[in-house]
Amino acid sequence: MKSRSESLIRLKKFQVDEKRRQVVQIEMMIADFERMATELDQQIEIEHTKTGISDVAHFAYSTFAKAALQRRDNLLASANDMKSKLESAQDALAEALEDLKKVELLDQREHQREKDEQNKIEQSEYDEIARLRFRSGQ
């Protein structure tokens, strides 16, 4: 029984670690997307300063700035999409942690039950020894 519960605990810990890695990976992706979008914003501002045109509807608006705006918008949309995936991954992590706690509690109870049974046996043996000594002392 011990090896099975220990194996189950190891499996649950592995699952928790995997869910944590997924959460961290998604968080890093979101941060990268947002960082790249910020960099594009800076490049767009530089382009606006260079050309003197910041109106997107202007006929002479920079094609580089238009493309950068589109890339920035795509990155921000991807970051928002990843935020919903992050929420799902965090929920899965919380569920995996709950499962691990349940298995650990069951294992702890089983160990306590075994310990209590062993203590009961030992106490019974001590009682028997005491009875024998008491009888032999009479």
UniProtKB/TrEMBL annotation:
Record's subcellular location: Cell membrane
Major location (coarse): membrane
Family statement drawn from the similarity comment of this UniProt entry: Belongs to the FliJ family.
Keyword Cell membrane: yes
The name this protein goes by in its record: Flagellar FliJ protein
Gene3D superfamilies, A to Z: 1.10.287.1700
UniProt keywords, alphabetically: Bacterial flagellum biogenesis, Bacterial flagellum protein export, Cell membrane, Cell projection, Chemotaxis, Cilium, Coiled coil, Flagellum, Membrane, Protein transport, Transport
Pfam families named among the record's database cross-references: FliJ
Gene Ontology cellular component terms for the protein in this record: bacterial-type flagellum; plasma membrane
A Gene Ontology biological process term: protein transport
Chain segments annotated as coiled-coil in the UniProt record: 72-106
Keyword field contains Chloroplast: no
Classification via NCBIfam families: flagell_FliJ (TIGR02473)
InterPro entries documented for this protein: Flag_assembly_chemotaxis_eff (IPR053716), Flagell_FliJ (IPR012823)
Membrane topology: Peripheral membrane protein
